[in-house]
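User: two proteins, same treatment. go.

Assistant:
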Amino acid sequence: MIQVNGSPAVDDKRIGRSYIARMTVTAKPQLNPFLKMALDLGPLILFFFANSHYGIFVATATFMVAVLAALAVSYALTRQLPIMPVVTAIIVVVFGGLTLVLHDATFIKVKPTIIYALFGAVLIGGLVFNKPLLGVVFDSLFHLTAEGWRKLTLRWAIFFFALAILNEIVWRNTSTDVWVDFKVFGVVPLTFLFGALQIPLLRKYAAEPAE
């Protein structure tokens, strides 16, 4: 119990519960995991089907519209714009636009290389300055110790660089259709598999959420 300027005593535990309740009410809304997955994978699936039926240029235009639509839906539901999807959307629009204007599929093929390399470089840069930025992205999903965030961030940075190299190898040595298949049936399963392989690390370095 506490006394404030002669006022009636106030239960500090009650204050704490009230504060937590307000924080819960004002917390930023989170997307349903299945809806988030649909918004993440939907544009890529549309890209694949559009390429199968109409070619790479129609697929590129479809992909651009779908990415922006997914971003708009995410903002409408959460009133916030995550950094990674925003950066991805900007690069998709820029390189997709160049693909359509110059009628050259090279730009849309290079786009994943730039995105993966950029994410990898940002994560490494964060580690250099002792700021494991992956923690900022996944903070609402995982609670890890500082060492856990550093190790997980390093692993994802290396994975992004590996994807950048792999994308360069595939698009330079295969047809456009094979490259599109690789994006859908190669990169997506690899990413899920890599994420699943991090579960032991998540368990080992799990930390209780800060009160």
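Protein 2:
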Amino acid sequence: MSETTRSPRIRIPLSLIELVFRPLPPFVGGRAIGLALRLAGARVGTSTMFWGMPTLAGSHPQLASQLQIGELCGLNFGCHFELDAPITLADHVAIGHEVTFLTRSRRSQNPHRRGEDSDAKPVRVEAGAWIGSRCTLLPGVTVGAGAVIGACVVVREDVPANTLVAGTRKISLARWRGK
């Protein structure tokens, strides 16, 4: 990621940014949302577009600082980022609408304390990946460069580079193209 993704020194509260941008309809203020998120502490590429204000949630004291998005990314409306650990989207990543990025899960080993918090794990999407609409990326997952995740897929484990995931199937795009 380039130096343009650095956060400015001025910090604007995330609640104020959401107050201004949440009521706007999709496709309005896409570059301004990126600027506002940078002002809140996120590292967002200047050429990245948002089609609606994403939801940022979590318990980290500097919530927006946990989000890093590269250059030339496109994020559709309704995205949800749980930022208890860092979430990184590299350059040229495309995100469909209503995609959820989770960084914390619940432990279920102890039957007397079900639902106990586990450690937060980062999520990473590498360069050129596409994430289809209404996907959920679970904690600790890395989506490889050039991977394509079909709509409504729950990504539970790492996805290798140049792989298509549709339902429960993984298909090598390199082999599919005959390379």
